[in-house]
Every structure is written in C-alpha cells, then in structure tokens.
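RECORD CONTENTS
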Amino acid sequence: MRNWRILVMSAGLIALAGCGGMSANECGLADWQAVGYEDGVKGRSTDRFGDHRKNCAKHEVAPDFQAYRTGRDAGLREYCQPTRGYREGTRGARYVGVCPADLEGAFLASYYEGRKLYELESAVQTTSAQIKRRKTRMDEIETELTGFMADALSSDTSGEERAVLLVKTKQLAEERVTLDNEVDELEVKLERRREELEAHRARM
C-alpha cells in the first residue's frame, strides 16, 4: 500500500476531487487511478465516479473508468479493515455497502460495535441536553413568578391586572410542575442509558 500512498501524495488533483468541481485542465490531467484510490480509501460508492464524469463532461473530458476502478479497488482494501470500520462506527458515519465480500464481515462486525458506542453516547448526550433545557426553563419560570408576585403586591396594580397576573401565575406554576415531572423521568432514563454505555464499554 505504500506505493499507493506515494501515488496519492504525488497526484495534486486528488484534493480537488472532493471539492465543488474540477476545471478542464484538472479533468484532462487527472490521474484517474489515484482519484479512484482516494475515493476508495474514503469508502465512497461508485456514484462518486458518476459525479466525476458529469463534472468533466462539461469540459468534454471522459474519465478513465478502468483506471479509476483499479485505484478504487485498492483503496477499498485499505478502507475495509476492522479498525477503520470501528472508527467509522464511532463517529456515526454511514456505511454504503462498498467492501468486497472477503473483507466485509470483519469490517461490519467492528463497524456495528463502534456504531453501538456512538448511539449510546449520543443517547446520553441527548437526554442530558433535554434535562438541561427543562431546568433552564424552570429557572426562567421562577424569575417570572417572582416578578408577577412583585407586580401583584404593588399598589399601582389594579384589580383587573391582578386577576390577569393570577391566571398567568397559575399557568406558569402548572408548567413548572410538568417540567419537574419530566426532569424526574429523564433523570431515570439518563441513569439507565449511562449504565448501558458503561456496560458496553466494559465488553469492548
């Protein structure tokens, strides 16, 4: 694989293959074997070649598919390793079914292991964020209720205004009770998800 790395490094057009488009000069001079390798090592599907073809067709240049496929096949053999599968899973990357049959089994086993870790960590983060948002709102309600109470006790407040404040106070108090109950439920859920996460990490 070292020769492939050298090939990729020496092909200055590779970085451009992932950008918005290639110029006529870039399409004409592209080393399609190196472009294919770069796409393969990133786990991209053959749809990527279609993008290259459409882009270069604007400049009346036809990419070399055979060279591209040779490079991509080599790149995929580097991509489709268990360590890469695990890393892709832990970052929540989508697998698009590109690995050859002799490598896919081990790759997917590691990928799903990493994906499970990603999902458990995401669940913990999501639940923690839900709790934080509710507690923030509860603090806001406390501030609003304090303000309403001060207004209700003010001699400048009319009877009609106090009646309105009473309704608002009741609504806020009910909202706070609802939020408090939701926080209790979410904290139980958060503890359960943390236990699942720790259990998964312990099995790794």
